[in-house]
Amino acid sequence: MRISLRPSQSHGKSLSSSLNVLSRYLALTPILLTTFVGAVAFNPVPSPNLDLDSLGRVALAGDFEGISLYQFEGQNENGFSTNGSQSVLSRFPNGGFATLASADAGIHAMCSFTMQDGTDGGVIVGGNFTSLGGIESQGVAMFNSTTGSITPLSGLSGQVSALLCDKDTNTVYVGGSFIGANSTNAIAWVGTAGWTNLPFAGFNGPVTSISKASNGHIIFGGTFTGLGNATGPNLPDQQIINISTSNVTSGSSSSTAGFSDPRNIICKTDGTDGAGNTWLLADNTPGFWDASFGFGFQPTKLRLWNTRQDGRGAKTWRFTAHPINGIMNLTYIDPVTKENASCSSECPLSNDPNIKFQDFHFVNVIGMSGFRVDISDWYGSGGGLNGIELFQDDIYSYAIPSFNEPNCTSIDFASTSTPTGPWTVTPSRQSLSQYLSANVTDADTTSVVFLPDIKQSGNYSVNMYTPGCLQDDSCGKRGRVNITGIMATGASSAGFTTEIFQTNNFDKYDQIYFGFIEAGTGSFRPSVTLSPIAGQNIPDYSIVAQRVGFTLISSSGGLNNLFEYDTTQIVIDTIDLDNSTFNKAGVALGTASEVNTLVTSGSTTFVGGNFTTSTFNNIFAIVASEASPLTGSGLNGEVKTLFLNGSTLYVGGKFTNTTTGGIAGLNNVAAYDTSSNAWTALGAGVNGVVKSAVPLTLNITANTPETVITFTGNFDQVQAFGTNKATSVNGFAIWVPSQENWLQNLGGGTMRIDGVLTASVDLPGGDSLFAGSLSSSQLLANGAVSLTSAGNLNSLPIQIQSSQSQSQSSLAKRAGSAQNVSGVVTGLFYEEGDRNLTILGGHFTATGSNGSDVNNLAFIDGSNNDTVTGVGSDLSNASTFKSLAVQGTTLYAGGSVTGTVNGINVNGIISYNLAAPSFSNQPPALAGDSVSVNAITIKPDSSDVYVGGSFLQAGSLDCPAVCVYTTSASQWNRPGSNLGGSVSVMAWASSSSLIVGGELSVNGANVPLATYDAKTQTWAVAAGAETIPGPVAALAAANNDASDLWIAGTASNGSSYLMKSTSGTWNTVGDVFGTGSVIRGLQVLSLSKNHNETGLVSKDETLMITGALVLPGFGNASSALYNGATFTPFALTSSSSNTGGSLSQIVSQKQVTFNKKGAGMKIGFIILIGLAIALGGVFLIVLGGLFIERLRKKRRGYIPVPTSTYDRGAAMTRLPPSQLFSSIGQSRSGIEKQGTRI
Predict the structure, then answer these.
(1) What is the pTM of this model?
(2) pLDDT value at position 232?
(3) CB-neighbour burial class of residue 791 (10 A; exposed 0-12, middle 13-18, buried 19+)
(4) What are phi and psi of 568, to 5 degrees?
(5) N or C: which end of the chain has fewer CB within 10 A?
(6) pLDDT by residue (tens digit) across 1042-1062?
(7) Rounded distance, CA 303 to CA 159, Å?
(8) Cβ density class 837-864: b for 16+ within 10 Å, e for less
(9) HSE-CB of 68 using CA atoms within 13 angstroms
């Protein structure tokens, strides 16, 4: 990607003040996958064409744990999603991961659907999402890997957890916790016919895994006890819909006082007529009674009380549902014939005084949010009603208390809720019901407790309903919520805790509990509590609460978590269930068991879950006709995931050993050799639950791809084993079978991958797709990498772990310093004599070659097998080195450095003898508030060390901002007397001219850039400094004498700026960096291929910008290249904090030199060269003539005669050498003047 900009030639003004900022970035095309060929193809970006040959060794230093070069459109620094949303992923050619289609929640399963005739049906994607690729897709969709298009497979409501694409039957078997067509929790998508009910209509509990056995039968695993749909309660129509809080209106009401209010009949069940109890219509007039609600419902029964007031009453009526405006079909018992009857537009209502009320049942259960009763005929002088109630089978508890069952009825334990905290009612919009929203300020005091009206004990499926975030524009504010429940008394399994994500774009529900619930009594009420989760780092964190639903599940059905389906059977006979080895094995698992995962290999199917029997626990195998235990009788904890790679079965879950014990290191992950029937530890495992195991191909050694196994779950550490220390992770770890170790322990040279992987699928063409959310980098490296002349990244031979960053409060005092305070801040290469040192400084901890910790300053000795050493323990571990320079064999290292060296306190700067190696005599300590040395430079042609930063004194000498350490005298000297403030950067323009940037003061005036004349020892404000918008944090010469400069920093308005000085005129590139950008370093580099000529950068050069950049239209980058017109990302980094890292600077072995553009050699040198050539030619001619003349005379017999001498120079006018050579170093005009004088 490129950001197009045009430089302004106006002094200190924006490059294109007449253009809108956005128009400058029209060249920034959104990063999309633009080409699909067979599978997924990616667009490469143009090569940066850097020419680094003249720089020797080159390195990039910064604060990162992974780094990539920007090579393909779609690469970015984005961290993995932490709000539960996942994506369909593919691999870039450089190994990184690309997002193809993002979901608004988790993706649990994928399978590639190829039909019998070879037709590619796409990749079926299932999960608990409500949209995929921005298209509404409830739980399942089809992804076309050729075109990248998404096709929703509409018709399901709920969550898909398992998929099996079966080519033999042209069928995709789908399992989960959902309702679709006439099935529950299992259904089939057949060829191009779409959703098809299976012969058994699903299961009465959720399905978690589907596999195909060797006999071609389909095996379903999950938490169910029978086939078919969920059962209804023994006591139907048990929940009363709350009419009392609805908006009630009427038409043609009576004008008689006490009888005109339509609300008179709400909560009136005693049948007493009279004023305030009865609603009447006007005489001999049809009318209506209407109620609208803030929530949706599916009524199953209507109860009406007719009035007898003054001989009146409703005779015929109809029920219309809103918002569909459909007249409902009803059934009832005829009070005269006592037989079933039905009605629709003219339903009768008896006026028999012996009939207290009549019940009417809905033929079709339809969702509605309001209804209307129209009275078309009446008894006596007019119609009316004396009471009304509406019932449903569904058991709900709403977050909004007024939506729950009414208090005015004689319900023993009516459903209710208790919100606590800053909740507000949010309109339903596209949702089924209004709901509560809260902006969380205190997670401990915000919650909603749901109390359902459970009248019948039994097994229930409990679902939490969450409104979509698009309708209220809250997607960026939502995250995870905690759900806890108490379902029964006196049982260890009576409670549960889980978490769900609320980032769904559209309405969804999550199954939060499946199991036994005890009916409510005077001493116990089942409850569900929703509360926020603190520490998610979400701006304006918001949560929502709508309703919880409870569905009664049949308690008997002849199955228990496993079912074998013969696809040739059209009708399932439950009598034959016991004929299946799988079915019998499931029954043997006992109650309260679960099957989580199935894997089939040949004639063997492995079953993992949460169960205990007398012969095996949590995992077993079904071979042929029997269930067989694995070695050690299984594992001592729950198995959640299985993956079979060849003969090795990888197992993840929550366990620590086999059931019988004796195998160390089986902490939540394990490997089982199916050929030798033996368990093997993966190192010492991880310290938390593992939820998924997904294979991946990586280059671990050389360029040989191999399969590695990724594990995702709730853990934060790879356990220590052997010589490997414990390693912190973010719930993601990679096992490398060939190395018998975790990738995180293998050090540099491999990729860095972090995040979540839940599934993978192989495509027909050989490529693979993945599901999850990942952050990836080409190279796993911490703090510093080498950049080869060929443009490749290589790790340095050092292992660095990040140290804790210093507090922002302390950094704020170091005005003007924009350098990193963690990671590698600076470095240099030292190769004098036979030494070959790479020196790194910053705030980090590395591992020395002797195993000791090396803190903040490290040496890599390339002449001694890359031995890594430090400076010992004399310095505080809290130190940060920010600048390095070498004078002779002495290293001067500065920063926020404190300690005691040879009994002397040091502050700000140390000296170290590289030849010894040991500490040298130390310069007297610097003093001031929060001392920090940010820049060190050696004065050309001298041994004086110039030190710049934030300090007030050097030893006892008042010496603010810049001080000179005279090494020959081992003392500090103040350069000039009119500089103050804080220095960030310094550079020599010549042997006597120093350029300094920062937050400075010269003669009491605040300035960002100043110059120092070492001859006159005076400071001056740099030319044009008044146009610079803020302190200078980075500086780079644009030519050899630094008469042209690049500078960068932070403007007074908080934005980052970039400017160039050309012949004393400052040009800005404009307000091009996004909010939050920090520029840390600048460097002009040569190119191997010219770009178009621009006004700011020569065509054979480019400007490298390092830091933490935000490029509009692209996003975050740690380095970018600027050619005077466009910005192009160069390096992208990642960090353990799940954000992009940063680069502080590019470090090179040799200094950058510039070719002279358009200028010839100075005339003085031309004269000298011409004179030398002329004199040489004359000399040769004379010499040749003398030789020939002598030869001629010799042949003729001439002999030399004595001669007298005289002063031949007496006739010449002498020209002083000072006049001849004085033009050297002068401008052309000066030379012309000199020539005139001559």
Answers:
(1) 0.82
(2) 53
(3) middle
(4) -85, -10
(5) C
(6) 889 999 999 999 999 999 998
(7) 35
(8) bbbbbbbbbbbbbeeeebbbbbbbbeee
(9) 29
